Amino acid sequence: MARTARERIDGDSVSSEVLAALVEALTSVGPFDVEEKQTSFHVMNGRAFLGIHPRKGGLLVNVVLDHALDTDRLHRSQQVSASRWHHEFVLGSPRDLDAEFLGWVKAAYGLTVTAK
After folding, report:
1. Phi-psi region of 4 (alpha: psi -120 to 50; beta: other; left: phi over 0)
2. Which residue of 29, 34, 83, 91 shows the fewest CB atoms closer than 10 Å?
3. What's the confidence (pLDDT) of residue 116?
4. Beta-carbon neighbour count of residue 92 at 10 Å?
5. Residues in contact with 14: Cβ distance below 8 Å, sequence separation at least 6, in sequence order
6. Quick one: pLDDT at residue 35?
7. Residue 55, CB half-sphere, CA atoms under 13 Å: how many?
8. Half-sphere exposure of 110 toward its Cβ, with a 13 Å CA cutoff?
């Protein structure tokens, strides 16, 4: 049984495909680092702006923003501080990486640029 985030990604072709498409899309946003944790990946630009959690058949992606979102695409949303919200999205296909989702990712990335 896969235990680490990397093993879970490598053991699921859909998760692997979605992660590859997400990393490719991130290259147009700006420079970033990926920190591999035991059960997830943190995408960082000084601080984390995305959390990637492998799931069977896709990814659960946590987008860190400074405002709440109102969309049916949300899996879950939580205000974690006065100016930070964690928004979770389930991505089951590279098609889920559309302009709307990438707009939220770019906004999350922009918060790391202003925080430096």
Report:
1. beta
2. 83
3. 54
4. 13
5. 57, 58, 92, 93
6. 95
7. 15
8. 9
Q: Which pLDDT score, from 0 to 100, does residue 2 have? A: 64
Euclidean distance between CA atoms 57 and 15, whole angstroms: 6
Task: Note the helical H segments in the chain.
Answer: 5-10, 13-26, 99-114
Instruction: Count Cβ atoms within 10 A of the Cβ of residue 91 and give its class: 0-12 exposed, 13-18 middle, 19 or more buried.
Output: buried
User: How many residues are present in the chain?
Assistant: 116
Tens digit of pLDDT per residue, the chain (116 long)? 568 999 999 999 999 999 999 999 999 999 999 999 999 999 999 999 999 999 999 999 999 999 999 999 999 999 999 999 999 999 999 999 999 999 999 999 999 987 65
SS3 content of the chain, % helix, strand, coil (to 5): 35, 35, 30
